[in-house]
Structure formats: structure tokens, C-alpha cells
Amino acid sequence: MPSTLFEKIWNAHLIAEGSGGGLLLLDRILLHERTGGVALQSLRQAGHRIANPAHVFATMDHVVDTRPGRRSNAPDAPPNVFIDVTRREARAAGIHLFDVDDDRQGIVHVIGPELGIVLPGLTLVCPDSHTGTQGALGALAWGIGSTEAEHALATQTLRVPRPKTLRVTIDGALQRGVTAKDLALHLIATRGSAGGRGFVAEFAGPGVCGLDLEARMTLCNMATEFSVFAALIAPDERTYSYLRGRSFAPAGPFFERGLTDWRQLRSDPDARFDLEIRLDASEVRPMVTWGTNPQDALPIDSAVPDFPAVAGRLSLPAYRRTLEYMGLEPGRRIEGLPIDGAFIGACTNSRLSDLRRAAAILQGRKVAPGVRAICVPGSTRVKRMAEDEGLASVFERAGFEWRESGCSLCFFAGGESFAPGQRIVSSTNRNFEGRQGPQTRTHLASPETVAASAIAGYIADPRQACD
Amino acid sequence: MPQPFTDLTACAAVLLRDNVDTDAIIPSREIRAVAKTGLAAGLFANWRYLPGEGRTPDPMFILNDPAFRESQILITGENFGCGSSREQAVWALAEYGFRVLIAPSFSPIFYRNCLRNGLLPARLDKEAIGGLAEWVREDPKRHQPLVSLATQRIQTSARSWPFEIAADAREALIEGLSEIEQTLRLREQIAVFQVADRVKRPWAYHISPPASAEGVAIESTLRRPGIDGK
Description:
Chain A is an alpha/beta fold. In chain A, 33% of the residues lie in helices and 17% in strands.
């Protein structure tokens, strides 16, 4: 019987099946200090051992200091209980640990692919909602809670309700200055943020094959905001050449053996999906959000919608609340809105290719007066590589703060934030109320749009800055 | 170990907003310790307290209304618990005293987190939720819904609605089972599966360098990401 990519991975990992789904074997478990430490600690306190420490990886990303020259690991650094507990528990458990000062440290969904931890055909879980990012390499990767993580650690398995299958076929190619981020926002805006609920989504078609691996990661990252269980892209030659030689990827004959298996990892031509969606990438324009949910996205040259345009999705009180929160009125053009902050970073758009494209716009230009612009590379290695090839100095000369790697101002954890009422254009994935600090107003966009806006001082179309 | 769930008649709070995300349920800055407790005070902090230092209750927020303060049931909107996977959102709700959440839909990770902590996420359609909310608001102290997991119904004095929940989730809630213990009973079956899998997919088990070899392997052959094929 013809099967989908998802079904192939599911079946290869299915130990037992019950009314509520399947008991799946897990190949990799990733942890970060914000949710992983508590799982490790309570597992130990309950007297359970980690079934397979060699398959478990922990990094520090969520609450690490990203200011230049951070000293989180120094004896005089301010104590951080999440980092301390995760470090202690990870060492005691004998799992892989990428500590704050480790060359391999970075945002968990940046280093998973970068270090070759995720591979095609694997199952991978992490107590983090954006874990689906790593499905870009053809793995079944999904986000879990801390208690699920305890179960995963203790048994190397998880009970999973079987999702329905969705294929998003993307025809055409993106226009210049339009990115995977815009494509994802277009999908979410068109179908609603709940459009993928209950589904595992496979992105397919020429519009996906044409994306490099990092762009695929951006697309899969944003699929979380489409409420999918997981996102997947079938591996291809680009995937294999991306993985070859990476730290934790299989080496030598093991890699070759993997290749043989990975080449089978695609949906059969007549495989059936529960739902099919088609999009034309060539129709996508740079997208920017106007509200407090990623589905509130529109092409940059649009105006803030009036209520009838969104009535199917928002109640009138919710619509009013959104506009009040965002400090906007219906009919206001999104392009041209003055900004206070510009942020490039997060598991969505903090990889080397993202920084290169933003730097191409920033080259020889200056951030507008009054705009606080920040760039936070997604991993320590991305940061080093960007420094080696001169990108860091482009950012700095333009007036961007150049940071150490971590999640940073993507969300507000009680440390740094933008100020109340400030309008920020951001390469992150969530524009919820208070996400980047109390009362902050976040507009999601591609790194190009963030860069172009930082220079202009208002939300600006990157296609003009590319010229 | 989650508490077994039995039928519950209790005061219900009405928070009819869609897309209440986990950062609204428990703001990240309220998560100060590596623990599953100590979170109740931070529940809905952005809405429950007025801006500024100290915790001045916002009289407009429902849980600050004496009639709703003791609520164990929360009636809410679409896509409840979306956003970050943080389980602290569920721990905070449970610690505050909530045992049942009623919404048209829940975010998937949040939903599973509820089940693993003895919190019942009951799915009810929007119309029924509207009717239930109206009845509760008439007299919150006396109009307490009955939530029966055994019959899978939510009842008021006049009406009753069936709610949706997966069969195994229902069972787990009723019995308060620890899932780890359940799965560890299958230890042998898992081990047998893994032995066969290791033969089938040797590459999935070939992880180098090994764990605990901190900082030894800085690879030299790393290709630059982003330039493959382009």
C-alpha cells in the first residue's frame, strides 16, 4: 500500500498501538534549561534512570545572557537556577551537555541540525513548542511537555495520538526579497492559526525543493504557529550534503548506510493524505503582522483590516482589544509604521543565511536614529562564522547590537525586554501580547524586512532596499 | 502521580477569550524556580495584577471577583493554552485549584500536559459554552456545573451537554495512572524492538562523540550551513 513520509517514519517506530495512538520509539531527546532541568530533576527524584543517555542532548538557550562578553559561567556571574540545575542534572545523568561557554552551544533548534543530531527518518522530541523546526531534515520532530519529557527520558518512548496527514504543496518559486518566513506567514494568514490542528504537515512541491535547508527550517518552525503536531520535508541531496561531516551525524559506512535508507523517505506518488493544500510561492509578497497572533499577517503594502474582514476569526471585543494593544486603527497602512526596535534572531531566523541576507541590506547603511536594533545569532558557531566572514562588522557598523547566542529578546523572561508601548519589527515567531516585554508591540517579519525597517525607522519593504 | 479524577461540582470562572496562550496563563518571568510548585501566585499575572511593582489585584479580572475566586472549573475560548510548551501553565492552573477546563479547543501540547497532571480538558462546542457561561454568570455561587467524567457530561440544573475526550485519556484521568510505570511494564517489549531496530537502522545509533566526553570533539570538517547547493 502506498504510504506517506509520515507513515513510513511512524511505522518504523511503532512498538505498540492502543486506542489513544501509538507507543513510539524515540531516537533523540533534546532539552534546554527552561523546561529540561525540571524534567531531569523530577525524574531523578522519582528514582527513575535515563534509558539511553547517549541519545539525550541538553543546551542552554532560553535564559542565558546574550549581552556581549557574557559571564554566566564565571564564578562571579549572577546565579541562574535554571542553568545551575540543568548543568548539575545533565552532568549527573551523563547526557551530552552544551554549556554556556561551549563552542557547540546555541538555540536548541539551531544546533540540532547544525551538529547533525537530527537526521532524516529519526523521531526527535524536545520540551519546546518549536521542535517541529527540525522536521526540515525529514525527521519526525515534535514538541512535548516536561512530564512527557520525563517519560521520554525514562523509557525512550512516548505515547502519541496518531495525527492526521496534511500535504502542503508549494508550486512556483519565491520572488526576490521574499522568503520562507513570508511564505509561512502567508499560509497561516490564509488558513488561520488553527488550520493545521491535529495534522502532521508535509511541505512538498517545487517551491520547497528550491529552498535551502535553513529556509526549510524557517518554514517548519513557523508551522508551529499553524498548530500542526509536526512538520516534515522529505530529505533530498541538499539534506545529505548538509549533514555530511557534522559532529554527531553518523560517519563513514554508517552515513552511507543511512543514505540508502534516507532515499526511501518520501511519500509514495499515490499516497493519500487526509487533507491537501496548494500554494503558489510566486504570489507571496513580504508579510508583516498587524495584530497579536501570527495569523494577523498581511502583505506589507496592506492596511490594518476593518472588523468585517476578520469577523470570521476574531470576535468584536477581541478585535478591539488587538487594535488597542497594538496602537493601531483600521485603514492604517502597515508599511510606514514608525518603529522603536528591530530584532533579528530566534529559532525562526537566526542562522547564517538569515544573517547574510540581512547584512546584504545593512551593508553601508545606518540604523535610523531612535531605533534600537539587535542581532542575536542562533548559535555560538553561527556567531563565529558570521564574525569570520565579516557579517558581524556589517551589523555593528550599521548600529546593530551584536550579541552572544541564545533565545534572548524573542520572549520576555524577566530579564531584558523592549519598553512598554514600543513597536518592534522582529524576525521571531510569536507576536502575542507581552511576548517581547510587558505592553510591547511586535510585528513579525522576515530578517530582510527587519533590516530594511531598522534603516528606514519605519516598517519598510525589503524589495526596495535590495535594489 | 496525578490525583484520580472523580465527578466534580464546583464554582466556575468564565474567561471567554480565544487564543489564551501559555505566557498569559503564566508569564515567563513568573517561573522563578526549577519546580512544579510555587506557580499559583503567577497564574494570569499580566491580567490579574495591575501594572507596576507589587501585586495589586486588578478588580476587573474575573479571579479577583470574590464570587469566582474559589473556582475549580474554567470556561474559556478557542485554542486555549497555545504558544510555548511550558508545562508550568498547567501546574499553575492545578495549583491554583482548577480541576476542569472547558473550551471549544485546546492547543495539542497543552492538552496532553493537562492529562498528565490530572487536569480535565473538556471539549465543548461554542454554543454550549455560551449557554453554560450564561447560566454560571446568573449566580456564580449557586450555579455550579457538575462535570462527570464517568458519563462524559457537563450538567447545569436545566441542561446537560456531552463533552469530548479520548478513551485512554479518560481512563488515565479516572485512575490517576503514572504513565512511566505503565510503560516500564513493557520494558522487555521495548528492548526487543530496539535490538531489531539497531540491526535495521545502525546509523541511528552511531552517535559520535559519546556523551560525557565534554568538549573533546570540535569537528574540523563542518561545512558552512546555508551554502549547500547554492
